[in-house]
Write a structure and sequence with these properties.
Pnp Oxidase, Chain A; seven-stranded antiparallel β-sheet; three-stranded antiparallel β-sheet
Length: 201
């Protein structure tokens, strides 16, 4: 099968998200200029640089009260900061609860019963029990082709690692099993890992 996206795929559901998988989930916490907290998951998320450490996430839909985007991007425009909370398998249900199209006045931490903790380098809340949190200062927001496609880039200014995930000096993902996004309504979980040595190492 071959298709041009501009012509449509002719399938019951768009296969694009099922092709680019698995994708890590960035559970993005933000705070508006009015002090309100927001928490929402994004599967167009990844780390993009080591020195200095930088991450990105993309928002691809809009709410009518948020000037062509969603709460997360709107809050980041106002305050210039955000926190990436890493999602473990055990948090799948509360993460999913925060993905709903909630009104801007809703605090998803409270909605899903998630404990907050204060960030250290930015004025923002984080998921207290997450395996890791990346505190970020906005570097740029890039508008991509499409009506509501925005990519947010941030420099990581503080990192929290849960103590039980540090094994022999390494951050061990098998201690918490990262949740990953597949296509359609599907998810997966990391339960195995192996190492490869690069040529020349």
């Amino acid at each position: 099968m071959f298709y041009r996206p501009q012509d449509g795929h002719g399938l019951p559901h768009n296969p694009f998200n099922a092709i680019v998988t698995p994708r890590p989930i960035g559970w993005i916490s933000t705070r508006g200029a009015d002090g309100s907290d927001n928490l929402a998951p994004y599967s167009f998320f990844n780390a993009v640089a080591y020195e200095p450490p930088q991450v990105m996430f993309a928002s691809t839909s809009a709410k009518p009260d948020r000037d062509g985007t969603k709460d997360s991007v709107s809050n980041i425009r106002e305050t210039g900061v955000f926190c990436v909370n890493i999602v473990e398998f055990a948090m799948k249900d509360v993460m999913n609860q925060t993905s709903g199209p909630w009104d801007r006045e809703i605090d998803e931490f409270e909605l899903a019963g998630i404990e907050k903790a204060a960030c250290d380098t930015i004025a923002c809340s984080r998921v207290a029990a997450a395996p890791a949190n990346l505190e970020c200062k906005l570097t740029q927001i890039v508008q991509l082709p499409g009506e509501a496609n925005f990519t947010v880039f941030g420099e990581v200014t503080g990192i929290h690692l849960r103590d039980d995930c540090l094994i022999d000096g390494e951050f061990d993902v098998l201690r918490f099993n990262p949740l990953t996004r597949m296509g359609y309504r599907d998810y997966s979980v990391v339960r195995e890992k192996f190492s490869l040595k690069r040529p020349g190492d």
